């Protein structure tokens, strides 16, 4: 199916890419509805990961995505028709009430078109790709906190890093994306063991008066190539995760880790920092926006995909 390969970002967000970040996803199943000078264009794609993949800890195994292009004053009305056709397509394809399959609609966060229609069809804004431009100021406060020491995580810290990551995964599972799995500890141990053996530190521990209570994991180019199509900058850092143990909440450990990540990104010449977070999370959402982030892409989810 032919599709537009550019995005009209005027009036929405200057950090959205001008080329289509989903171009490589497009398949043959799609729908288009036009009313006057308004249009809704949607393409259905499917992605799947194995249960023994570490990414399975943070998402469902099967995602059915509707990739959309909406334009014009009646775009919402056009989108309602496209959405209905996609749902009919899903109903014939996806088992009902399968918790491991989700319907997903990614949308530019500053473009509200289609939001009302998604809500009517049982979708919720659950996941956000947030961005922090390098010249954006965070909330005032010291980059370091009394009693907090940040150091690179080493192979000897593997057990600590696994324990902190496992707590993060279990906490995030409350918000509908991360999924509790019996092999979670093994998957995290394997991934972190490989990461801690690398020469360049990308995992950092925060100690509060000598006790390790926070973990930060970050990525630099070329490791951020997978996320680069979604933002209009050439060099970006990615915050893969940041977790602070409950015993250290509101102690400044999280802010110190975030400031450390931004300092590393600045020193490496990054133009922006990116991260994903669960929008319903009552701690991470206000925390990250206080650090200077804002929503760039919002992912609307319905899980199970067909009810």
Range of helix content? 10-25%
Backbone shape: globular
Q: Helices and strands, in N-to-C order?
A: EEEHEHEEHHEEEHEHE
Helix-strand makeup class? alpha+beta
The rounded Rg comes to 20 Å
Taking the sheet with the most strands, its summary is: 11 strands, mixed
Question: Could you say what the CATH topology of the largest domain is called?
Answer: Aminopeptidase
What fraction of the residues are assigned to beta strands by DSSP? 25-35%
Total beta-strand segments = 11
The CATH fourth-level homologous superfamily of the largest domain: Gcn5-related N-acetyltransferase (GNAT)
* CATH class assignment of the largest domain: Alpha Beta
| Count of domain modules | 2
Low-confidence stretches: 1-10
Could you tell me the mean pLDDT? Answer: 90
N→C terminal distance: 28 Å
How large is the count of helical segments?
6
CATH-scheme architecture of the largest domain:
3-Layer(aba) Sandwich
- Biggest sheet, spatial arrangement of strands: 1-2-3-4-11-5-10-9-8-7-6
